[in-house]
Protein: ABC transporter ATP-binding protein
Organism: Rhizobium vallis
Amino acid sequence: APAASARGLIKTYGQGDTLVHALRGIDLDLARGQFTAIMGPSGSGKSTLMHCLAGLDRASGGTLEVGGTQLGTLDDNALTIFRRRHIGFVFQSFNLLPMLTAQQNILLPLELAGHRIDDTVRERAQSLAGTLGLTARLDHRPSALSGGQQQRVAIARALITQPDLLFADEPTGNLDSAASADVLDHLRRSTREFGQTVVMITHDQAAATYADDVILMQDGRIV
Ligand code: ADP
Ligand code: ADP
């Protein structure tokens, strides 16, 4: 089965005569381990599509199956649990906690989930940091890291729970081109090495070349 599958997905904001048709019938299959870039002009529905796929927002119509679960059948609680178990996020602004070291930031999702932080878990964080080229930076606070390093910490933090799908919203929007290439390379590697399914919104043509597939959106549709 695909990692995610949408049929006739519709999202309408507002009501009465102020309706905004953000998604006008999306059909989409994301294969497991596929790295997909979503591109398109501002207002074309990229964020709305990502938010629906990630279970952050509910569709108004159509069906959406992610990891074998029909998201429309979940109540709000179940949707939150689904997100914690299966979904990771990376944002344009790295959203690291400034008082915590890189390693503490990476471990945070496990701590928040009530996981005991023992040697096994610390080793997992260190091994993941190793694959992201962060071994020498683990004891540093975010302010002592470059932008690219901070984003790689954010990726490690998103991967520590081993999510099936990783969503990245403009992950290179705050990075120079060398750091961007590095971050994109690591995103692509996580699909190859861990079988992660990665969906990235980007405005950057160069970033899109790292993806297996590019979805171009316009006016709520995939064109
Ligand atoms: P993109 O990410 O491609 O810029 P969005 O998904 O953010 O596009 O927006 C698609 C359309 O939906 C736009 O017309 C936008 O103004 C509208 N929209 C997005 N979020 C909301 C919201 N919460 N309430 C009302 N309209 C919204
Ligand atoms: P190791 O033999 O050290 O476990 P792996 O290549 O299997 O090496 O994994 C490297 C790191 O990535 C480990 O810390 C592992 O826990 C973590 N990892 C493994 N699978 C996933 C996954 N699906 N998503 C995120 N991280 C993962």
